[in-house]
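Handout, page 2. Input:
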Amino acid sequence: MEWRDEGIIIGSRRHGETSLILEVMTRAHGRHMGIVRGGRSRRMQPVLQAGNRVDLVWRARLDEHMGQFQVEPIEQNAARLLASGAAIYALQTLAAHLRLLPERDPHGPLFETLAIIIAHLDDPRAAAELLVRFELLVLDELGFGLDLSCCAATGSLQELAYVSPKSGRAVSRAAGEPWRDRLLPLPAFLTAGPGLRGDERALDDAFRLTGFFFERHVYEPRGLEPPETRAGFLSALKRSWRDVPPSRPSELAS
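Output:
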């Protein structure tokens, strides 16, 4: 068995004296693991860091075997990301979300979104907006996607301001006002175009929204706890509002 694909490294662990078991998110083969012989060598260590984009050749005698990777670098992002605590937390959170999906199931949109997020991880606010959209995409891939396209009560496309915790569907401001205390806030930037940025409150509401549905549909049924790295990223994001000037809208759209 053999295939070639492009991947983004999301984790690794030691294997024997000189090798590593590498975990990657690939474009066509989903989250995949394989042994890299000599992966702990001085030459290979910088290549096999989380966040790096690599060219992969996977070989195994049978499809169900772990197999071995041959790895060549495409884009080495790890050194840049290591300079930011928020970037490290975000990258680890992304990896934790991907591990909720079955291994080797292809999820092309997640791979493409992951690549975009990694390019913006050194800007905590841009990364936050992309990360919360990634969480919505993961929920969708798991079969628990939210419907934020129109009001569940009226069908209106305008002024979508809430989400029903029962159905996961959007509710307009007018229809939801009598029950606003029972509904989850829907930040406008999640339903608007890329020109609208989320402020501190909007991002906080967005992560509470996705966190609620992860807890209900994923963590609680599987007996899991939310990844601690997610809380670490949110703390780093709060600090960024004090320390970093806002990004211009064009910076995220470009």
